[in-house]
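Q: Joint fold for the lines below.
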Amino acid sequence: MQEYCVGPAEAIAEGGRLVVDCDGIEVGVFRLKGALVAWHNVCPHRQGPVCQGRIYARVIEPVAADGTTRLLAYAEDEPHLVCPWHGYEFDLETGRCQGRAAMRLRPARLREDGGVVYVSL
Amino acid sequence: MDAKPIPAARPLPVQEIDVFTDTREVLRHAQQGARKRGFQDWLICDVDAHHVETVNWHEMVRYIEDPVIRHQAMLFHQEKTGGAPYGLNGDAGLKYQDVGGCIPHQAGVREPVDDTSVHRDVTLTRRAMQALGIDYMVLFPTPMLTLGLHPQPEMEVHLSRAYNHWLIDNVLKVDNRIKTLAYLPFNTPREAEAMIGEFADQPGVIGFCVPSVRHKALHHNDYMRCYAMLEELGKPVAFHAAYHWQDPSLATVNRFLGMHALGFAWCNMVHMTNWILNGIPERFPKLKSIWVESGLAWVPFLMQRLDDQYLMRPSEAPQLKRLPSEYMREHCWYTTQPMETVNMKALQVTLEMINAESQLLFASDWPHFDFDLPQEIYDLPFLSEQAKRNILGLNAAKLFGLDPRPVKTL
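A: Joint structure:
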């Protein structure tokens, strides 16, 4: 397993990202709720550049007690990473695909040492 | 002994893809996949890709044949505010394909293009071909696919003629790897016949297209002359699907997802039903029909449905000498996209039922949100290598008379 230096942790702000190339293997490092999380930049659907996609909060549709609906809403604490190729959505925190739990993003091992971020591949 | 230095990762130049990102960057993984699979030695024909013709509408209207309509259209684009394309019908703002900005290349391909020696659409098409590993790409318009519903039949004629001429002059003459199936204004059969005669030998025209969203039946006697001409010329006719939310049969569907999923299959299901039950393949046995952008799952459904019903009521389809499904698997060709892949067992049965080895044609539908890549065919575990080669390019080469040798450089 080879380790790569991604850069200073402070360079990745809350809600931000740094997508890097490690000798041909691409990884996206994201800061979410203060913590860092890293995923391979390969969508499990069709190998699209998922880590270069937009981040949206998960869309929900609240249902009233009488079974009716009126508005859509964003679940602000559930950011989704959306693959720019086909729109597949993945929970940024768990990597789980919306609607297809068996499909997940591939995690990359992450280490923070002295304010510097490293990934192992 | 000193510890080995830890190599530095290199930040990608594009951190977040948007509508201004270069197609080659958006599809960088596709090109890597194409190289990895050795597509350099595979002929790959993309039988359905698109450009957004309305971006060039102000150029295109100069090709309108009618001098009065041409003059009015040019003034419209010089003076009118609001940016609507002159004379084009359609569903205005109901274009939600990009899922609220989730899929930028669907919203717009607005990347910089420095090369002014060729039309911008040539450069954009070349970039997509290069990234996907395509040898020949068949280009279709996009908003014009609902022109068949135009309240002015003559406007369908004006605009489709202008579009065909514009495309030939600005794109097809420039790059012989870019092809088209020229638009036929089917609401005016005599004009469609004239177009077949006029465009059949034009550069890059390898067949003709009838957009499937329309309310005139394809089996109407008015069209028999067109079919006879196409059969004689050996030029295929493609029925290109689209959605149409004003279709009364979709009036209760409130989600774009549902309307799009049904609409793109439904229009061709209706036309195919008429095509078969009225015996068009019996009347024109050498006429090649291609059913474009409806996916594939509808085909086995319709085969089974029509076979069962036909056997109980053969007197209502007296021209048929065989089962409807037999005509559908021998006289009709299908494009792959959007290929339904969640249930691979169902897909395998589908490909067997439609005789994919000879009848299936790869299509990407780039740059639309549900585009497919050639690797989807290459990676199917149940196909022989020959079947994959046929689907990806050799079936199209045979159908359109293209050189089967790969010409791209990956």
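Q: Anything notable?
A: The CA atoms of residues 88 and 147 of chain B lie 7 Å apart. Chain B touches chain A at residues 6-12, 14-17, 26, 28-30, 33, 99-105, 369-371, 373, 375-376 (CB under 8 Å).
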